[in-house]
Design brief:
Blueprint (H helix, E strand, L loop, with lengths): L2 H64 L1 E3 L3 H25 L4 H10 L2 H28 L1 H10 L3 H14 L14 H25 L1 H5 L4 H32 L9 H4 L1 E3 H7 L1 H18 L3
Antiparallel strand pairs: 1-2
Helix pairs in contact: 2-4, 2-9, 4-5, 4-7, 7-9, 11-12
The structure holds protoporphyrin IX containing FE.
Protoporphyrin IX containing FE (HEM) binds next to helix 2, helix 4, helix 7 and helix 9.
C-alpha cells in the first residue's frame, strides 16, 4: 500500500469510527428511553399493587368491624342488668346508712325522705340481688349455655400463665399479649369476686334484716360479726365495682368511653379476634367442621 492509499484508509477508518460513535450515542439514548419506560411502568405497577393491597386491608378491617358475633344471650344480659340495678340501689342507699353522720348523708336523707325510706329501698335492692343469685344458680345448673359458661369461668393453670405473660407484656419485656379464650383471667376474677361478695352480703344482710327471727337460733356475737362484715364488704364491693370493674370494661383507654356488649350481647369480629382469639379460632374450626359435615356426598 502506498502512502496515499494508507492515508485514504486511515481517513475511512476515522469516518467509520465517527459514524459508529454517533450511532452508539443514538443507540444509548434509545436504550435509555426503553429502560426508563420499563422502570416507570414497573414503579407504576408496584404503586398500584400497594394501593390495591391497602384498599383490601381497609375493606377487610371495615368488614370485620361491621361483622358481629353473639357473645351474651338474652338470659345472661338480663341477669347482668338486674344485678347492676340491684347493686347500684344497694350502694346508693347503703353508704348513707353507714356514714349517716356526714353532711352528704344528711343532704341525701333530706332529699329522699329520710333514713327510713333508704332502709326500705335497701331491702328492695337486696330482694333484687337475692332474685338474681337464685336465677343465676338455676342458669348455671339447668341450662346448657349456663353450664358451658360456668365451666369456662373456672380458674385453670393457663390463667396464671396468662397473668405472668400480661405482666411481661405491660412491662415491655415481651411483645406477645396473652391469647384469651371465652373469658380472660381478669373477667374470671371479676366473676368470682362478685360471686363470693354476693354470698357474704346476702348471708350477713339476711341476718341483719331478720334479726328478730335469727336471735333465737344464732348467738349474739354472730350479729356483731355480720354487721362488721356487711359494712366492710360493702366498701370493698363498691370500690371493686367502681374502680376495678368499671375501669376494665368501660374506662380502659382501649375501650373508653363505653363497651355495649353486655347490653346488646354483640361483639364485633375485630374485637373478638383481638380480645378472645382462642374462642374465635375454636368457633371458626367448629363452623368449618359443621360445613364439611353438611356437604351432601
Ligand atoms: C352489694 C350489696 C350490698 C351493699 C353494697 C350493701 C351496703 C350496705 C351498707 C353500707 C350498710 C350500712 C352498714 C353500716 O351501718 O355500717 C348496709 C346495711 C344493711 N344492709 Fe346492705 N348492702 C348490700 C347487700 C345487702 C343485702 C343482699 C341485704 C339483705 C339480704 C342487705 C341488708 C342490709 C340490712 C338489713 C342493713 C341494715 C340497714 C338498717 O340499718 O336497717 N344488704 N348495707
Amino acid at each position: 500500500m502506498n502512502k496515499a492509499d494508507a492515508r485514504l484508509d486511515y481517513a475511512a477508518d476515522k469516518m467509520i469510527g465517527e459514524l459508529l460513535k454517533e450511532e452508539k450515542v443514538e443507540l444509548d439514548e434509545k436504550f435509555r428511553a426503553v429502560l426508563k419506560g420499563e422502570l416507570v411502568e414497573r414503579i407504576r405497577q408496584h404503586v398500584e399493587d400497594k394501593r390495591r393491597q391497602e384498599e383490601e386491608r381497609v375493606r377487610k378491617e371495615e368488614k370485620s368491624r361491621r361483622e358481629y358475633f353473639l357473645r351474651f344471650g338474652l338470659n345472661f344480659r338480663l341477669q347482668h342488668l338486674t344485678l347492676a340495678v340491684g347493686v347500684l340501689i344497694l350502694i346508693i342507699t347503703g353508704l348513707p346508712i353507714k356514714f349517716h353522720d356526714t353532711l352528704v348523708a344528711k343532704i341525701f336523707f333530706e332529699m329522699t325522705g329520710g333514713i327510713a325510706v333508704s332502709r326500705v329501698i335497701h331491702r328492695v335492692g337486696a330482694t333484687l340481688l337475692i332474685i338474681v343469685s337464685v336465677w343465676h344458680v338455676l342458669f348455671i345448673t339447668a341450662t346448657r349455655t349456663g353450664r358451658n359458661d360456668f365451666k369456662q369461668l373456672l380458674p385453670t393453670p393457663k390463667d396464671l400463665k396468662d397473668f405472668v405473660q400480661n405482666i411481661k407484656y405491660l412491662l415491655g419485656l415481651s411483645k406477645q399479649k396473652p391469647r384469651y379464650g371465652r373469658f380472660s383471667y381478669v373477667e374470671k376474677f371479676d366473676y368470682w369476686a362478685v360471686y363470693w361478695g354476693m354470698v357474704i352480703m346476702i348471708l350477713s344482710g339476711l341476718l341483719l334484716w331478720f334479726n328478730n327471727f335469727f336471735l333465737g337460733i344464732v348467738p349474739k356475737f354472730m350479729f356483731d360479726i355480720a354487721t362488721e362484715v356487711h359494712s366492710d364488704e360493702a366498701m370493698l364491693a363498691t370500690l371493686a365495682i367502681v374502680v376495678w370493674h368499671w375501669y376494665n370494661v368501660h374506662f380502659n383507654p382501649e375501650v373508653f368511653p363505653f363497651n355495649p356488649t353486655i347490653f346488646t350481647g354483640n361483639i364485633s369480629k375485630e374485637k373478638m379476634i383481638k380480645d378472645h382469639p382462642l374462642e374465635y379460632e375454636q368457633m371458626i374450626t367448629k363452623t368449618e367442621a359443621q360445613r364439611k359435615k353438611d356437604v351432601p356426598r
